[in-house]
Every structure is written in structure tokens, then in C-alpha cells.
Specification:
Blueprint lengths: L3 H4 L7 H7 L2 H13 L5 H17 L4 E5 L12 E2 L1 E3 L5 E3 L3 H5 E5 L15 E6 L6 E3 L2 E10 L8 H21 L7 E15 H4 L3 H6 L24 H16 L4 E6 L5 E6 L2 E2 H21 L2 E4 L12 E10 L16 H16 L1 H7 L21 E2 L1 H13 L10 E3 L5 E5 L11 E3 L4 E7 L5 H24 L3 H16 L11 H10 L7 H5 L5 H9 L5 H54 L5 H32 L4 H29 L10 H5 L3
The site of magnesium ion has 3 residues, from loops.
Length: 693
Amino acid sequence: MISVPEIFSAYVFDHAKMKKWLKKKDYNQFIATVEQGKPLSKELASAIADGMKNWAISMGATHYTHWFQPMTGITAEKHDSFICPTDDGKVIMKFSGKELIKSEGDASSFPNGGLRSTFEARGYTVWDPTSFAFIKDGALCIPTAFCTFSGQVLDKKTPLLRSTKAVSMQAKRLLNVLGKQTKEVIVTVGAEQEYFLIDKKNYLQRKDLMFTGRTLFGSNPAKGQEMADHYYGNIRPRVLAFMEELDRELWKFGILAKTRHNEVAPAQHELAPIYSTVNVAADQNQLTMEIMKKIAEKHDLICLLNEKPFKDVNGSGKHDNWSMSTDSGENLFEPGKNPKENLQFLLFLISVITAVDRHQDLLRLSVASASNDHRLGASEAPPAIVSMYIGEELEGILENLSSGKTYDEKVASDLDTASGIKTAFKKDNTDRNRTSPFAFTGNKFEFRMLGSECNISCPTTMINVAVAEALDEICSKLEKATDLNSEILNIIKEYYCKHKRIIFNGNGYGEEWKALAKERGLLNLENTPSALVRYNDKKNVELLEKYGVLNGEEIDARMEILLENYCKTINIEARTMLEMTKREIIPACITSINELAETIRLKKKLDLSRETESKILERTSALLDEAYTAELKLEEVSKKVKTESDIVKKAKDYHDQVLSAMNDLRKPVDELEKLVAKKYWPFPAYSDILYSV
Ligand code: ADP
Ligand code: MG
């Protein structure tokens, strides 16, 4: 039996470990320095490095690494051992303060959007002491930020830290105007993570899964998710064994893994942690994804994090639950018993409504990726249109406040379970809307457009900075007000009227919503290239520069990196399709055709009916011709598009031309899969993959 409290955070150099391995005065000084956001002195850095190293060695570590989040979307590490030679030909284990704080690397090997060529190839990783160091794979991992030699941001974490600071400062300012002194406002985030688990032997037989993380061919199995029998269903033993080991491992990393269950699609599951402070949540979600993949392999399983691994089967998302609270634990989005009189809450709420409406484009582009394009708007995930759900009650309150009426709230009724027991719980006044991209869920917002593979840093950065701007504006007005209460009501009215078009409490999956959203003038950025090109719009550059999150040059670089990434992803997918078609699918079809032709020939000799075989042969042959033509077309289009030098045009061409040529190839191949004998089909079908674990 394991004791969870005992193993929890075992791999983490947390406060308890710091207290044990650092001198008391060093620990206290360290905490104070971090709280004040000041740089560490050389002596203090050395003392901390030494304590960290001694703890790490006691845990069996031999190496250390700066651990960072470059623009690849995954984390990066380069292990260096602690060894240092001595005069007598032996080694001692050393780790200096300098090595802890800063490390130099080659920035040119990571996506940099041309930033490094403006100066030179060197890049730096710099310790982020607000996130704990931990041990992984025998190495002491030090969370760091990554920048160029001249200080331009090259990672996903720095903008997150900066935007958090901005929003926290503005929230504190608003509380201050309202007469509340707080030391700090904390951004809290909980990232719910969906994933697929499939058998490794099926994975190894499919080049598309291996190279791209999703299937590029495959027809629907006879049984899909229509019976809704997987969601919250019994967890099968093999999956449970994986989940148990995963939870244990995550707990050792101090990750508050809380909920595990089967999701809607067959072979799909979800893990939700208890929320934590934003930068810890971002680090931990990256770690969670990495550990999921590793543990899966130990069980001969593969964890697929691609947002849309199977066509016509629900894709996987990630919900970015976002809120703010004071250091004394007051959640700023807690409406309380009487929201209509809770002006503080209403001001914070209106600032989020304003932020989401003004910066729909930034939110949309923060989740844009080639794979998420297959998910958004595919009647299982929110559409590509950003809108907000706040529930009937809050909408009623804001509507009435802005028209000067009082709101007659619906009384929350007791929940009668018919079991004779009247529960103490109150039924939610608002039925939770599952189709909204940005939903208020009681005391937090849930941004649901993220794909499962998304690093939460970018979307969270955008929420932070957009809300910071709205709060800033509201504070400036309130600070000048002579009558605070009437100014608050004016602001709520003004901002609500201006931005209420973003609120939509209805079904976001419906076609009618698209038309209505258009009428309201909301953006519908349907695909990644159309979303990403908005990154450096004047409005966005001004916002991100004003709050010191990213400068114009860094934004251009980011846009280029992400567009480039989009092109590369589609190019790899196209090449994988071509390889599979040429070397596996076409030969399999020819074998099948051969067999049919041979049967027909023999049957003719025996003077037997050949009707069935002939029809199948004809159809197979026609589809094969179609597939071959589509393959040639895809090859030609990919070659042409690849040479385009303008990255914006190139990304658009990949979407308009290559992606559509890929679809044209997929259609006949998926039909062929249904006709060709299973024994000839070169890789496992959806029905094999989705039901084998
Ligand atoms: P759901 O809303 O999906 O039904 P929960 O209410 O249990 O489920 O919460 C989902 C996620 O939201 C969890 O990861 C949880 O930790 C997180 N969460 C809850 N409260 C907050 C908060 N104040 N700030 C950020 N995340 C939160
Ligand atoms: Mg959720």
C-alpha cells in the first residue's frame, strides 16, 4: 500500500525540502527576494544551488538541466552532469549559483522566427524561481525562461509570467479603488486534459499515427460513440492500471491529479487536476503530457494527444479553467449569494466580457493549430467563433442593471432526488452550457477551445493581458470618480451594452449560431492561417506592447514560427499520405484486384456466374484509379506550394490547396478500405484500434 501524502511531491524541491536542505537564513532570504521580484545575490544563489544539488544527489540524480518551453510546444532539456575533476584524478559533484541562474545555449536550433539572425545565434535560459525545481529521469530540472542573447523572448513561459504580472497588478488596483487592500492577486488555472489510449502494436503498424499523431486514412467503424456508453463508463483493467500508475507518478511530481474518467469517444479518457497558480499549472500540464506518454509505453499503450486522431470520432480538448483570487483566498469571480448587489464581482465580470469581446482574435489564434482546425466547429467542440456563456441569471442581472430595472431572480430550488433524501445542494440557477467556447462556470471561466496538445501558456497569456487592459481602463475611470457607486453602475451599463454581443447562452454547435454571430459582427476565423495573420494587427501589437508582454518584433517572430509550423505539419501529413498510398495502399488494392480477376477467370472456365466478383472488381478498380489520380495531384500540389517564399501566402496555400488535395485522396481510399479484404488491408482499421484496449 502506498501512502499518498508520503509520496506526494517527493520529486520536487518544494518548501519543505528547501527548509530541510537550506540554511534557515538562506531560505528566508530566498522567499523574501522572490516575493519582491528582486534579483538574487551571488552568495544566495550559490547557497541555494548547493542545497538543491545535495538534495538531488540524495535522490539519486547525477545531472542537472535547465528545463524550458521553446516555441516547439514541447519542453526542452539538455543534461549536464554534476561531475567536476579533482587533482587526484577523481571527481566531486558541483553545482554553482551561476549554473543555477543562467545557461547559454544555441538559439538557432529552436524556432526563432528570424529573431536570432538580428543579432547572433546564442540564447539564454534564465531560472524562474517562482516554479519549483524537480527531479526527472535522474536529472535536476530547473524551470527557466528562454530568450536570445539580446533578451528577445523565445519561449512560451515568459509572456505568461509577464501577462500574469500585468493582470494581477490591475486587479489589485481595482480592489484598491473599491477600498480593499491586498498584497497580491493570484491567477489560478486548472487544465483538464483529454487523451486517447491505444494499443502500441496497432500504432506501430500505422505510419500516419507514428509520424503525425493522427490517422490520415480510415473509415468509420460499425459502432462509434452513438450509444454514449463510454462516457463515465467502467474503466477497463488495462486502462485502470495505466491511470493508477499515472496518478502515482504525477503525485510524486507534486501534481494534484484529481479526476480520471472515460470520455465520450471509445478509447478516450480525461484527467483533471486541482487548480494551482498559473505558472505552476502551465509547467505541470506540460509535465503531465510528457508523463502520460511515458507511462503509456510502459503498459504497451500509446497515449495520443493529437486533438483529432480519428475522423468522425470526437477529438480531444483541453479546458483552461481560469480565475483570480487574492492572497487571502478570496476568489474574485465568486458571485456570492447575491450577485446583483456584488458590485466588485460585477466589475470583474464585466472586465472579462469586455476582454473577450475586444480580443476574440487573440483568443482564437492562441489555440490555432493544424490539428485543432479539425476539431473546432466539428459538432463536438466549440465553433471557431469566440463567444461567452454567463448563464441566464447573470445575463438577467446585467441586462436589468443596464436598463435601470431590478432583477427578479429565480429562486434556486432544492434538488429532489426522489430518494426521500432532500439534498442540501442547490440546483445551479444556470444550466451549464457545454457548447460555449468561453463559459462562466460558477466561480471561474472555462476556455474550451484549446486542443489537447496545446501548451496552456499562450491562451492564458491572452486572457490575462486582455483582462488587464479592461481592468486598467475601468480603474482609470473609477479613480477619477466623485461618486464611486454611480460610476460603477455607469461603467457596468456602458461596457455591458458595448460588449454584450459576445454573450451567447444558446447552442454553440448549431448552424443558426454562425448566422447570428455574423449578424452581431463577431469574428469567425475558421482556420489557422486566417487566425494567425491577425497576430500583428495594430490593435494586438499595441495591447501586447503596452503591458510589456511581447514587442512588435517578438510578435512578428511568433507569427512566423506558428505559420511555419502549420506549413510543416501539413507538409509532413501530405508526405505521409503519399508514402502510405504508394507503398502500402495501392499494392494492397492491386493484390485484391488480382485475386478477384483470377477468381473471375477461373469461374468463367467453370461457366459459373461472375456477377458479384465483377461488380466488386469494377468498383475497386475505379476507386483505385481515383486514388491514383488524387495521389498524383497531391504530389504535384505539395511540391508547388513548398516553394512559396511568402509565409502568409504559403500557409494559406497549404490550407486551400494541399489540405483539400489530401481530402480528395482520403475519400477513395476510405471507400477502398470498405471493399478490400481485411487480410489485404495494410494497417489496422478504426474498429481494431478503438476497441482493442
Ligand atoms: P467541470 O466544471 O469541468 O464540471 P470542476 O468544476 O470540477 O469541473 O472543475 C474543473 C477544473 O476547474 C478543475 O481542474 C478544477 O481544479 C478547476 N478549477 C476549479 N476552481 C478553479 C479556480 N478557482 N481557478 C482555476 N481553476 C479552477
Ligand atoms: Mg470542464
